[in-house]
Amino acid sequence: MKKTTKRFGTLLLIGIVAVLLITNACKKDKDTTEKPPSLPPLSGFVMSFSDFSNPADTSELRSAASYNNWGFAYLTVSSWNLALSAALAVPAASFAEAFNHQPVYHADAGNWTWSYNVTVGQIIYSAELTGKLVSDSASWEMRISMSGGYTGFLWYSGKSAVSQTGGYWILKESPSSPNDMIRIDWHKQADGTSDIRYTNIKPGAAENGGYIFYGTTLAELNRFYHIYSKTLDNLQEIEWSSTLRNGHIKDAHHYTDTNWHCWGTTLQDIVCP
Predict the structure, then answer these.
(1) How high is the pLDDT of residue 246?
(2) Structural domain of residue 238, as residue ranges?
(3) How many CA within 13 A on the CB side of residue 49?
(4) Any domain includes 111
(5) How many domains does the chain have?
(6) How many whole angstroms separate alpha carbon 256 and alpha carbon 65?
(7) Is residue 273 part of a domain?
(8) Rounded-to-integer distance, Cα 212 and Cα 228, Å
(9) What's the predicted TM-score (pTM) here?
(10) What is the CA radius of gyration of the chain?
């Protein structure tokens, strides 16, 4: 009788353990397959140039003497906007399009895949973005194929915090020059402010280490760019109000001093307060 009771107790314990293991496995599988990682924000990939890209700002006749400070800032930012728009046309378009699609889970690889086509400059590209949860972060890889051209080029990869507080991307230059070109670092704060930095990481490039850094703050001048030229060893700082539009710029190489040079709400030069 004692042996029977002991045997029953052992079998009961084994049964309980088996049920717990199966339940946990099913729960883990359910959590994994039903909850894809959230896509990092588009603002953590594409830098904003909107405050320096209004054609109306240059449609009026402006005197170089009276609009020098804002004009210099506008010229610098616009030049960066044009250069980056060309260099990142396909990567930026492919990432932006991901938000219009739903991912598919692949149990064998343990990842999610967003698959779709995107057209850039009348050329059709096939994009395959994979995301995989790893602890408190998600890892990402974007492979691009061009119609009639290359196939499965790993154009960029990166990681992002599950909390959406920050992350990074590493971008290749192009399928024909598959070296690393740009590292993107981004952050989002609890107070609503954010920042994004593009750093030149191209091996052997004269500007390797140079960067453009954009962010929002809670200050009166609530937007900024920091632009560092490696070849000139020069840091340009631009700060402005996104609502009133007044601001100032500091550039030791251009102005041959370390002072702020200001413009008012009408974009005309003013004496700095």
Answers:
(1) 98
(2) 49-87+208-273
(3) 19
(4) no
(5) 1
(6) 17
(7) yes
(8) 6
(9) 0.86
(10) 26
What are the distances in angstroms from CA 93 to CA 36, 46, 78, 121? 21, 10, 20, 11
Predicted confidence band of residue 91 (pLDDT cuts 50, 70, 90): very high
Q: What integer is the mean pLDDT of 68-92?
A: 95
Token digits for 44?
């953590």
Residue 238 lies inside a defined structural domain of this protein = yes
What would the pLDDT profile of 113-147 be if each residue is shown by its tens digit? 999 999 999 999 999 999 999 999 999 999 999 99
The verdict on residue 97 lying in a domain is no
Q: What torsion, rounded to 10 degrees, do the Cα atoms 147, 149, 154, 155 define?
A: -80
Q: Which residues of 111-127 are buried (b: 16+ CB within 10 A; e: fewer)?
A: bbbbeeebebeeeebbb
What is the rounded distance in angstroms from the CA atom of residue 198 to the CA atom of residue 193? 18
pLDDT digits (tens, 9 = 90+) for 205-242: 999 999 999 999 999 999 999 999 999 999 999 999 99
**DSSP structure string for 187-201:** EE-TTS-EEEEEEE-
Task: Please report the DSSP string for the chain in residue order.
Answer: -HHHHHHHHHHHHHHHHHHHHHHHHHHHHHHHHH-PPPPPPGGGTS---GGG--GGGGTS---TTTSHHHHHHHHHHHHHHHHHHHHTHHHHHHHHHHTTS--EEETTTTEEEEEEEEEETTEEEEEEEEEEEETTEEEEEEEEEETTS--SEEEEEEEEETTSSEEEEEEES-SSS-SEEEEEEEEE-TTS-EEEEEEE--TT-TTTT-EEEEEE-SSSS-EEEEEEETTTTEEEEEEE-TTT--EEEEEHHHHSSSS-EEE-TTS-EE---
